[in-house]
Amino acid sequence: MRTSIRPTVAEVDLGVIRRNFDRISALVAPSAVWAVVKADAYGHGAVSVARALSDRCAALAVSLVEEGLELRSAGIRAPIVVLGAYYDHCHAQVIEDGLTPVIYDPLDLELFARAAEGRSEKVDVHVKIDTGMSRLGIDPSLLPEILDRSRALPGIRIAGLCTHFATADGPSGTATRAALERFRACVAVAAERGLVSLTTHAANSAAAVRFPETRLDAVRPGLALYGATASLEVPARDLEPALRLSTRLMSVRRVPAGTSVSYGARWLAPRPSLIGTLPVGYADGYPRHVESAEVLVRGRRAPVVGAVCMDMTMVDLTDVAGACVGDAVTLIGRDGTERIGVDDLARWAGTINYEILCGISKRVPRIYKD
Ligand SMILES: Cc1ncc(COP(=O)(O)O)c(C=O)c1O
Hints:
Blueprint: E1 9-13, H1 14-28, E2 32-36, H2 38-42, H3 46-53, E3 59-62, H4 65-73, E4 80-82, H5 91-96, E5 99-103, H6 106-116, E6 123-128, H7 143-151, E7 156-162, H8 174-192, E8 199-201, H9 205-210, E9 218-219, E10 243-248, E11 251-255, E12 260-261, E13 267-268, E14 273-278, E15 294-297, E16 300-305, E17 313-316, E18 328-335, E19 338-340, H10 342-349, H11 353-359, E20 366-369
Parallel strand pairs: 1-20, 2-3, 2-9, 3-4, 4-5, 5-6, 6-7, 7-8
Antiparallel strand pairs: 1-10, 10-18, 11-14, 12-13, 14-17, 15-16, 15-18, 16-17, 18-19
Helix pairs in contact: 1-3, 10-11
The structure holds pyridoxal-5'-phosphate (PLP).
The site of pyridoxal-5'-phosphate (PLP) has 12 residues, from helix 9.
């Protein structure tokens, strides 16, 4: 069966993801590594990535309950931590499906306790602390009260404390160290209340790589698993990119100097040119607003010209000798000695590599190599 008719595909190398995982594990040992597979494993396919890591990964982390349920429906049995902490009325289902909830709202503690009533075993929940990101998490000053209240709730057990760093990929480590100190103070508050065997976790990829003191019991890398780093501050540590985005030339035309290309006629051929059309556009996640973007054809760089359309993108092939319909085109990946990284595309689009990876849309088939 053909997985796609159009040749635009994202190839994902699961062996690469496993190697990246193993490199991170070796680096952070003895801390555990929880693979962050939210947002469909940053566009790589959560079920496939979870399966590929199932023999070595202590736990998986998702943002949404829905993402955890998708993994459970696919038969993934590993522990799954729900980082995004949005539960609405689904507390019973979270427990039923064996997801480990992170909570930041004391009301959720009560609701999980109620949903856990009648169970023979206590339900583990993790409490998230806001140590400086001002996004999610309880204020450290409220922790004593929340821990005391949780003791009166029979069905649940506070099994973990966590936080998230805002600037682990930034130029200075000062804010990350200060956040870690605030977190450590919270761990001490819990210990004073007898909670001494809590699982503590805080580090994303950047913190896990750069700040050994943040590794605690477990680290939560996402981006590093997929072979990317959040900034130049974060050493790449032999991580390999796991995703390649490619297509083929669907049409090629010669145009005289002065011919306009694409919507808005904003690009005019400065010389007689060979223009190629690619069957990929912003509906596939190739960014609409790119500046000086390039693709690789026959091992040469070809500039993107004119506006990126919803389903198609034009490139200038004038300097690519012999370019013709059917030629392979690399949008992210290597062709011969040339390479376009997800960081390059992010820079051309004025965004971050996370957004490019997560943005590759579902109409682009993922082809798995292992
Ligand atoms: C709470 C939490 N932990 C871990 C991660 C993984 O971060 P990264 O992909 O930078 O490793 C994220 C991602 O945004 C997150 O929100």
